[in-house]
Amino acid sequence: MDKTLKMSLLFDFYGPLLTKRQQDIFEMYFHDDLSLGEISEQLDISRQAVYDMLKRSTQTLEDFEAKLGLVARHQQRQTTLEEITAQLSTLSEDLKIGGRQDLAQRVEELTAGVQELFSDS
To answer: Distance of CA 10 to CAs 76, 99, 115, Å?
Structure first.
């Protein structure tokens, strides 16, 4: 996973735990794609201060993940959902081929239920 995607995921889960200032600088850098210089100009602080704030913020987010593991669990749930959905889709197709439209329909309903359940977590 590339660094920007990783940081975005970490921010989605743990961003509210950062200070407002850290959140703002993080969003400007990772979401708005501003350079350190552009951020420093907008906030009237040194480029080094922006760099230090980003460094501390990313380290804090990584520390939260190391302790809580919410992003890793989320990714594992997504992988499990994809595997279950693929297996249920195959089962549904096999049932349709076997002339069991009623069971195929029920499997498709269960698939939708599983996807809804996972999307709420």
So the answer is: 15, 47, 23
pLDDT of residue 71: 95
Neighbours of 106 (CB within 10 A): 13
| Under-50 pLDDT residues of the chain | none
DSSP states along the chain: --HHHHHHHHHHHHGGGS-HHHHHHHIIIIIS---HHHHHHHHTS-HHHHHHHHHHHHHHHHHHHHHH-HHHHHHHHHHHHHHHHHHHHHHHHHHHHTT-HHHHHHHHHHHHHHHHHHHT-
